[in-house]
Amino acid sequence: MPELPEVEVTRRRLERELAGKSFTQVVLRVTKLRLPVPPELATILPGLMVRGIERRGKYLLFDCGSGWLLMHLGMTGFLQLHRGAAPPGKHDHLDFIFNDGQLLRYHDPRKFGTVSWFTGDPLRHPLLAEIGPEPLTAALSGAYLFEAASKRKVAIKQFIMDSSVVAGVGNIYANEALFRARIRPDRAAGTLTIHECAELAADIRTVLEESIGEGSTYRVAEETVAYYPLALKVYGRGGKPCPACGAILDETRLGNRSTVFCSTCQK
DNA sequence: AGAATTACCTGAGCGC
DNA sequence: TGCGCTCAGGTAATTC
Question: Which CATH class is domain A142-217+231-261?
Fold first, then answer.
């Protein structure tokens, strides 16, 4: 599942390949995603040039000059980049064809993704306007987290997964960051000290940056933007030894999400 | 306002 | 082999 590092790796690759290219054709095979894909994309986009591609949380923002193409890959979405025409397979919902012959294909079995169009400042789009600070920038600080968490009773793991608190932290990296910060995921957010918040803010950034540096938990392949999992410290390792102390990792559910932690290391 | 729950969706894995 | 069940989870929408 694409988390922030995968989206960022995808963004870099697509910007390298598509900036300066213009849409020539858009094929909409399936438009019933979690939110409906606007059918007018097929008439709006052809002739427009991609100026650049930005990211906000896990949203990709294609700057098309007169408007912005917004994409979210949901749980199972990914983007393939083909050098030329390619026959569509199952779940290949959308094709974006460019003037150099390249084909950007939106593939999403569970249809949890989002593809939309917005004119004006994209950060004012309803889906983006309430998103919290970007974790890879100084906007996510210990002081900010401490202030935001004040008096909050929700578990710290659910708190950092709330997109209005921090942008783009999903279940995998929430588990990893809390392990690194040695903080139990079920602690009430408001009980963290300012020092713990500083550690956590730094560790959220570290786990995301390390993942991007290694090509993310996913790796960008030649002809496609493809995903290959890397080893993670705790996620998916419940019942196995803690990589730090050897104790057996606990696996529970928090907010109906799989949660793995070491009750010896994390307090 | 904050917390909790539901809806959306399909493939994989499992027990029988 | 196949049926039915559970699980995976981002996030918007809804309810309490």
Answer: mainly alpha
Q: At what angle do helices A171-181 and A194-213 cross, to 10 degrees?
A: 120
pLDDT of A220 higher than 50: no
Residues in a beta bridge with A78? A107
Same fold, A4-124 and A142-217+231-261: no
**Tokens matching residue A121:** 């400042």
Whether A91 CB is under 7 Å from strand B: yes
Name the class of domain A4-124: alpha beta
The nucleotide minimizing the C1' distance to residue A158's CA is: B3
How confident is the model over A2-16, as pLDDT tens digits?
888 888 888 988 999
Task: Answer for the pair A166, A130: CB distance below 8 angstroms, yes or no.
Answer: no
Handedness of CA A18, A20, A26, A32 (dihedral sign): positive
Q: Where are the domains of chain A?
A: 4-124, 142-217+231-261
Q: How many CB atoms lie within 10 A of CB A30?
A: 13
Catalytic residue annotation of A = 2-3, 58, 257
Query: What letter represents residue A219's amino acid?
Result: R
pTM as predicted:
0.93
A75 touches strand C (CB under 7 A): yes
| Nucleic strand C near CB of residue A117 (< 7 Å) | no
CB atoms within 10 A of CB A147: 11
